[in-house]
Each structure stands twice: as C-alpha cells, then as structure tokens.
Amino acid sequence: MTVPSTAVVLRHTTAFLDEALSNPDLRHRIISSARRTVSSASPASLRALSLLSHALDSSPSAAASDAADKILLSVSGRNPLSALLLALAHALRGRAAAAALALLDLFSLDPALSRHEVAPEVFEALFLPHLLPVLHWFADQRSRILTTTSLRFGCPPAANDEGDDERSVEAVAAMSLLSRMSDGQAGRLKELERGYEEVLDANCKVYAEYLKEVVEMGDGGPLVLAPPQLVLTRASCEERRPDEVIEVEEELAARAAIGLRDGRQNSRVQVNDTKAPPSYPQRVSPDVLIRLPSSDHRTAEDNWVSTSGPYYSSDDNLDYSSSEIDFDIKERNTYTASLQTNGIQFQRHAQDSAESSCYPSPQIDDSDNIVAYNKQTPPKEFVCPITSNLFDDPVTLETGQTYERRAIKEWLDRGNSTCPITRQKLQSSQLPKTNYVLKRLIGSWVEENPYSTPNRLENSPPKIARDLNMSQSSPSLTSIIYQASVGGSASDLRLAISCLCTSEFLDESEKAVLQIEKLWRDTSPESEIIAMLAKPATVNGFIEILFKSVDLQVLRAAIFLLAELATKDKFVVQTLTRVDSDVKCMAALFKKGLVEAAVLIFLLSPRWESLVEMDMADALLRAIEKNDDELLEMCVNPKTASLLLLWQILREGNSDSSMILHSIISDGIIERVILSMEADMVEERIAAVGILIKCIAEDGRCRKIIADKAQLEPVLQSFAIVNDVDRFEIVHFLFELVKLNRRLSNEQLLHVIKGGGAFSMMHSLLVYLQTSSMDQSPVIAGLLLQLDLLVEPRKMSIYREEAVDTLISCLRNADFPRTQLKAAETILALQGRFSSSGRPLARALLLKHTGIRKGYRALKEAEQTRSASERTELNLEEEKAAEEWERKIAFALVSHEFGLVFEALSDGLKSRNLELSSACLISATWLSHMLSILPDTGVRGAARVCLLKQYILILKSARHTDDKALSMLALRSFMHDEEGLLNLTLHIKDILKTLRELKKSSGLAYEMLKLLSDGQDSSIKDMWIYKELMQVDCSTNGEVLSIVRFKNRIISGHLDGTIKVWKGDESILHLVHETNEHSKAVTSLAISQSGEKLYSGSLDKTVRVWAVHDGWIHCTETFDMKDPVRNLSVADTIVCFTPQGAGVKVLSWKGASKILSPNKNVRSLALVQGKLYCGCNDNSIQEIDLATETSATVLSGKKKLLGKDNPIYAVQVRDGLLYSAGTFLDGASVKVWSTSNYSLVGSIQSSIEVRSMAMSRELIYLGSKTGILEIWSKDKLTAIGSLQIGTNCKVQCMDVDADGEILVLGTSDGRLQAWGLT
Fold first, then answer.
1. Can you give the three-state secondary structure of 275-297, one letter per residue?
2. Is 1082:1041 a contact under the CB 8 Å cutoff?
3. Which end of the chain is less crowded, N or C, counting CB atoms within 10 A of the terminal residue's CB?
4. Residue 1317 in contact with residue 1301, Cβ under 8 Å?
5. How many Cα atoms occupy the beta-carbon half-sphere of 348 within 13 Å?
6. pLDDT tens-digit profile of 316-365?
7. 10 Å Cβ neighbour count for 684?
C-alpha cells in the first residue's frame, strides 16, 4: 500500500479547503452539517461557535480568521464544528499544515460525518486506499448471504411472453430474491451493514491520527511512518462466534497481504507525487458512453467495418511478447468482436432465449463466494483488457488504450515498449496521470449496481470454461424449433443464391435478389447464412445486378444486402474494392438518384481523391436534403453516409471546396447539416461540426444561422467520448462560434457551453489542455479562459491560471512559429468585438481611439447596411456588456505573473514573421491601452519596461501609418504616470517627427505633443528646432513685401509690382511663374475663406483676383479701389484695406464702398467672422462690427513719445484671443486680449520691435526690424528659440502652415527664405 507523504496529505486537504472558501454553497453546506452535531456543549460555547460559523460562512476574510483564533481558544471541549471552523480559519490565513491537522481532527472526532457529508473527497483520496480490504471483505460477506438465498431456491421462473416487454429481467430477479429471503438472512444482512459502518469509523479514527503524525513529522524526516494495521471494533465482533471473528481477521490480513504482493510496500516507500485534479465532475450514468476515445487515427469509415466477423477471424495476426496477456486479449477479442464494431451495433435482431438458464451470464464472473442471479455486466470500457477486472487505477496511454496501472506497469517492467492492444511503440515509459473521469464513472456505476460484478475478481474461472459449461446445457424446445426454421431458410437461401449466380435471365436474378432480401429481413442472419452470402461469387452476382438492372426496388435490395454484408465480413469489402469499376458503378447509381448507394460507398472507405475524381459532391448535397421517409432503412442512414462522405471530401481540401461550401450556405443545406449535430451517431455529429467549421471559414456570416438553430448539448456530450482529433474539432467549432458581433449573444452561448456536457465542461477542457498538442493549445486555452470569465474573476482560478499560462508559453515558443501566431491571434480574439463575419475589430477600434477613424468607419458602415435592424449604433446594453467583457479579459491577461504577457508580446514584436509581429502589435497596444482604464497594480510599469523601446522603434521606422498610430496610442497610455512621461521625454528626439506627421490626421498626436511641451524646458526646445531649408535672392525686384503659401506653392509680392510663384525641391526654390501685371508695389496677398482664390493688393490702387493652375497664375478679375491698397483682408462679399489716409475702407464686390473709423490711422487689420480688428498708429486697437458698422475700443491709444508714433504693426485672432504686436516700450512686445470682454489675458516679454507676426497651432513667430525672428509657445507664452535671418534687414512678412512644419518669410533686402522643423 502506498504510504502518503506530507505533501500528498497537504495537497488534498488544501484543495478541499480552498474550494470550500471559494464556493459559498459548499461552505454553507458543510458548516451546516457540522453545526447540527453540536448539542452537548455549554450555551456560551454554542453561541460562540454559532457566531463564528456564520461569520466564516457569510464572508470569509482575515478579520473572520482573527476572530476564529480568539473564539476557538475560549471554547471548551472538542467537537466537529470547532474542528471544521478552525481548519477554515487556518486555511484562510494560509497555514496549510495547521489547517490539515484541524481537518484530520474532524475525521478523528466524527468519521461518519466527515466521509459522508463534510469531506468525501478527502476520504476518497486519503482514507479509501487504506480501507480497501475492509470494503472487499464486506462485499464478499454480503454476497455470501445473498448466495445462500440463490442456491436454496434456485433460479427464478422464466417470465411469460406478455410480461417480457413490460418488466425488466433485473426487476423480476430483485423482487424474487427479496421474496425468498428469510428473516434470519435479512437480520444478518442488517447486522453486517451496521458492523461495516462501525469498522469504518474505528479505522478512520486510527488512520486520521496516523495522518496527523505524518503531517507533523513533515517530508524531512529520516523515514516514512508505516500505516496502522486494520482493526475491528468490539461492536462489530461482540455478537459473532470466536471462529467467525478469527475468520474475518484472517481474511482482512490476507487481503492486505495481497496488496503487498501487488507491489505496494508498507515502509520506506517512494511517494507518488502525481498532481490530483483540481475539481471533481458530477457523476453521470455510464449509459452516456458510446465508445472510448481512440487515437489510432482511423477514420470514421474504417471503424464501421468489423475486423473479425462471425466466420472469419482476424486475431491470427496478433503476436504479443507475454503469453499470458496474449491469451487473455485474444479470447476477449474473439468473444466481443461479433457483438460490436467500434461502439456502433449493426445487429438488427437479437436472438432471445425462450428459457432462463440457471447458469450466470458468460460476461459475469462466477466465483466460489459470489453467486448472484442476473447481475449487471459492467460496460467493457470499465474493464481492464489485461486483468479482465474493473479498473481501480485506470491510466490512458498515448495510443488511446486504457489499462489498470498495476497491470500495464508490470507489462512495461518486463521490457516491453509497445501498447499491448495496438502494438504501437510508446514514446515514454512513464505512466500518465490517473484517468479520473473514467474512475468516477466506474464509481457511479458500482453505486447504481451494488450487487453486480465486484471490483476484484481474483478467482474467476476462465471465460472459455464458462462458455463450455453454457454450451453443455440442454437446449430448450423453442431453440430446437428455431434451429429447424433456420435450416429451412438456409435451404431456400441456397436456391436463391444458385439462381442469382447461374441464371442467364435478368428477371430471374432480380427475383432471387428480392427473395434473398426477404429471407435476410425475416430471419436473424447466422454465421452460416453470412458465410454463404459473403462468398466472392455471390457478391459478384449482386454487382452484376447493379450493372444491369433498371428496377429501383431490385437495385435498392442489392445495395441493402451488400451494405449489410460489408458490416459483418471484411472480406466482402475486399471483394467489392478489388475492381475500381464496381465502385464507380455504385457512384454512378448514386448520382442518378439511388441515395442508398451512399451507404455502401461509405462502408467501402474510398480515398478522398477517388471521391473527388468521381464528382460526387452535388449528389451528396442532394442526398443530405432528402427526407428520412423517402429513404430505405439500412444499417447506416443514407443521409448520414452522405454527410460523412462529404466531410471526407471537405476535410482534405481541394479546389472545389469553396464552391461546395458556397452551395451549402446559399442553398440552405447548412440547416440540414446543423440538424446532424443532434444525431445519435457520434461520427455524424463530428462530421457536421467539421463541415460547419469549413462554412464559417468560407463565410463567417453563417455563424448567426448556426448560433440560432444549433443544439449544442449533443456535441458537448460527445466531447468526453471521442478521440483527440475530434475533440479539437469540437473545441475549434465552439471557439469560432462565439465570435458573433453581439456580445450578449456570445455570452449566452458561453453559458450554454459551460453548463453542457456529460461532465463539468471546464474540468474536461482543463484535462484536455494539459495533454493536448502544442498547436492545439491556444484555441483550447482561449475557450477555457472565456468560460472562466463569465463571472467576475476571483483572486484564484486554476482554469484561468492554466489557460493564460498556456497562451503565454505558446507565444514565447519560437520553435513553433505557427503556434506563436495562433496564440497571438487568440489573444486578439479574446478582446471580444467582431464584425458580422467574425473578423476581430480590435485594430479598427484602436485606430478610432487614435483619431484615425477611416478603417473603423468603413467597417461599421458596411455592418449597418446589411440589415435594417442593425443600422443604428450598438444599444447601451450591448456596449456596456462589451466594455465589461473587455475589462475582465484584459485584467485576467495582464495580472498573470505580474504582466508576463508583455514580455511575450515584446518578443513577438521582434519577430521577422510579419503576421506574428502585426498580431502582437495589436494585442500589445490593446492591453497597454487597457492599462489606462484598469486600476494600476504596478503592471503598468512592467509593461513600460518591456515595450517602450519597441513602440518608439515602430513609431520611428514603421512603413505603415496605422502601425505608427498604434504605437502612438500605446505610448500615450504610458504618459498617465509621471515616470512614464519622464521616460518618454528622454526619447523625444526620436518621436517628434512622426508625431508631427500624425498630427495632421490624428488628434491624439497633437495631445501628446502638448503634454510633452508641458514637460521640461529642455524638452520643449528640443521639440521645436528649425533649420534653413532654402533661400533665394530677389533683390533685383526690391523688397519682399508680402508672402503666402497657396496650394503647395509659395507666392511672393515685391516692391516693383512683381508676383512670383515658387516650388520647393529639397534645398532649392524653383521659380515656376512670374507676372508683372501690377505697376507698383504688391503690398498684400490674401487667400479667400474658401481657399480657392488668391487676392493681391497694390499701391497701384487695384485688387486683382488670381486663379492657380499647374503652378501658374493668371488674373481673372481686376477691381479699382481708388486708393493705394495696404493690409488687404477679404471675405466672400467684401474686401477691407487701409487707404492712404485715415480710416479703413470697406468695399463690396458689387462696387459700394465706405470709410469706417475715419479718425484713426490704421496700421494693421484682421478680419474674423464679420468683425474687423484694427491696430492703429496711436497704439490703440479698435473692433468694428461690419454688420452694424459700430466700433468698440479694445485698447486706448497713447500719446506720442518723443514725437514718435507707437503703432500696432500686426494683429492676429485665434481661438477667441486677439494678439497684437508692436514696440517694447512698456516691456511687452505682444499682448493677448480676450475678444469677449477685451481684458488683457497675457503678454510676451520680448525686447524686439515686432514688424511682422505669424501663428501656427502651437507657436507664435515674431519678426523684428533687426533681422531676428523669435519663436514663442502660444499656450504658455514662453520663449522657444530664435532664428537669425540677417544682419541688416527687416523681416517684412511671414507665413506658416498650421502645424508649424514650414515657415516662409521675406526680408527688406529682397531675400526669400524657407525654414523647416528638424
């Protein structure tokens, strides 16, 4: 017997207590059970324990744990409730050893309560292995009592014919046994059961004290304590005779000795530290099992044909190393081969014996001490093929075969390295974990059939001997009559076969076929009949009928017979496939409308290339559309066979697959395929799932149809009984199905998946994930994580931890690039937002956050035009559900191992695989962006350390603007922390250029630049560094008086009346066009508000309108202003300028004119939204409302100082603020005024005399009369820098684009310059 180590005891006790603390229902149930046992304690103790139990039951916390320590120390006496509460309190504080001791103390105080109500899982894991001899002894004694009844009265009488259909044999046997049981026997049975409970209680107490010593000693002790010997309490022996007590003790000792001989030692053992399953699935009746999963990679079609028929056996080719195992397996296969074929029975009629035999069933072992009538035979999946006993510790090998651990270990210890059944070579000799699912099913079956075959069949006679005993029993009268009828049918059959094979007339052969079909249906085919029909000559006769007959009834009969024979004799399949033309004939009949031919073609298992070559796809689709009442009843439904053949074609993939899938979706056949998910046959369900996956891949919009019409429960039930390949098909289908464009619909589907299946679906997925291949793991982990997050994430979840850890491991495994990509795509899909075709919207949504909305808008517009009901935005409930899901999934990913996912994504960003790096960029950006929404637990810093440099590199060097925008969004999330902003400031030179480029299309870039400009002074200056790009000397045309940027061109106005058009090319300004239509200096250039026309004002008293085409300008209109034009400002209907004298002249384009503010000499103008702002020579500023022709004073004028004017040389209006520039006599060259109340809101303390001013979105440019140009921050009004334009010149005019990228200016010495940001 294996001695438990301290680690094993702590693992099982900790797992139980953790589950109790995390599961309120379980915690409430076990505390209530323990509370009922406390009755004799003092009132104070009862009140204290009651208060404490309510506290731990309602809200377990550290405070409740502290209270537990104090209260429990004050309570006198030990009782089960105090022990349980103390265990929970210790577990809550993380004291695993103390919690285990308290829980074991509970077993010592009240064993029955502990094993039945409080902790049955702990009892099964720790106590039950030690108590197995007691259980076996009890089963033997009970069987002896029942055997006495059976032997005394013999077999029960046979039921009458009318009652056979109304009452089960088991019920008749049970009632008969009870009616014959004497009072003494019933009393003995009750006494035995009472003594059994007392024995268990006594041994539990002793063993609990032993386990406490193991825990206290720990694993560091020199030796492992030997477990105590089994004991019998006095209560169980006091009424027995002394010889009976001695007999019981000797039997228990013998059973313990058997355990020792089986290889289990009592001292100095090596402890098996296999990890126990985290949770236990609910027990389910074993009749849900159809067959165990097999990994022999045979197709569903192969599994339909029996490998050994009743007449021919294929067991001769098995050659095993161990003669004992060889004999046992061979005789077992011989016995069961004719009864089943891979879990699907083809027998149509069962031969029922008319008389009941007094011998037990051949499938039930008959030992000398266990004799019972009509026992339930255990399912073959529950019996080890080596020992022929029920599994005690089943292990499933990599080949899919399951064996008893002790037996397969002995097989491997003998030097064998192959699977005993499949003969496949095993990759590892290390046995896997216990198959707990199967073990639970066996336990459930044993509970439901307590009088059936016992777990240990030590002395059962060989099966061959039992079969001989059965065969020696005298036949009944009914069986003799049946044999006579069979003999007559065989005679008729021989005549019909002879006619079929020898007749030269087609009609006689057709009648023979119909007669053979009738004989087959009327009698249950025996081996002799099958042997006659399976002969090659007979099979060829049926084939001839298929070639020559045109009678639909005859053709159906021939197909039916060949299909039945193919399921019962493998040599029929060999005969049918020996000639290719035979299969092509069947395919031709099928395409002509003989739907039943699909069954025979399916049973012949043709290769998929042959199916494609025979062009069967259209016929298969038509067959699937048929109604069941139109088809012949056969061993396999023709629609099922057609579906399986279609899946075989689509599974391998070919050039026609897309067209086939399009037909399935567009012609409505997909709904018939969906119905096949509810089929009784597991293979049909799996085929339907596979076809639907292909349909989703072809057109993702069919998800909605599948989600609306599919019943998932049958598929979920199949998950536990199929092989690994089919299991992944189910997981893949479910993972793809929950990609609907409605979050609430996805969550409804996830709830259905979580609650379905034969066992706990999450536990099944967890077990499957732990044994799955690397390329399958990401999808399984993705589905498991979604199921776990249906509720608010707890602090600890083994499902979530395992799923996230798997995703990260796959993402970091560079040896498997496809697995890396799949993991990255899975993380991306977990975000939870999809289009109607199932395409993740994460990228488009993130670009929307950056302000680049084109991609997201296009997707949403396409979505909104498909259905009138979906033309509006997601309703509030959907949006709330989507945001909540996104928050939960992001928190689960980033909180695992303190942001370990960011390390994996950082490695993925460095990959040369473009798909992988792109998926990692989107996933990393999404999670980084979510960090700004989630509460900061320190993960934000870990993400910044892993990804900051990667994002900066992408922002700096990526080819695509979208990639730059995603990196920008991620970097913005890091700027929420001061440390992150500081780190980003250190790299400001690397990102400025890209941010300025993105600023044109993204408001986020502008926001980031603004945040960076609010940082260190050195950072601000680094952001705005200009260098001279180009310069040209135009001194021959005099001063440059005006300049403007218009339609990617630079246009300048000169003193001699010349207007020039320039084009910048690298470091050179090229003159594109020149015109001299003005006769005097061009003082002003202005662009219309629409941006389509260019206006020029000149001292020659004209204003001209210009059109620009291919860089050339030509005058379209000329207006006579009657006065020299300076400071031209234009609107759609009027033009304003300062004339030679006082005031401002305003003219409509129709010719009317007037003078406003006639008492002021205006030096500069700014026209904004119908209001004209005038800077005057006397240092005053006037606001004129052109609609009402009223004026208001913003700044009052000043008297001349030393006889000189102090004019306002320039005015600009931006964002409700008026900027005025002039002299620095009062210490401020530029003042900022509010246009709403004319108050002074700021000033620029510059020492230069400003002659010209230009403004971008963020900067103010001031040109002086000494050749210096200063640059100031518009928001903070702080100096950024200065440029030296010249040494003896004035900066006459300037213009800059909105982003401040290009600055152009003209000087008084005739030079034209262009400056750009570095």
1. CCCCCCCCCCCHHHCCCCCCCCC
2. yes
3. C
4. yes
5. 16
6. 333 333 333 333 333 333 333 333 333 333 333 333 333 333 333 333 33
7. 23
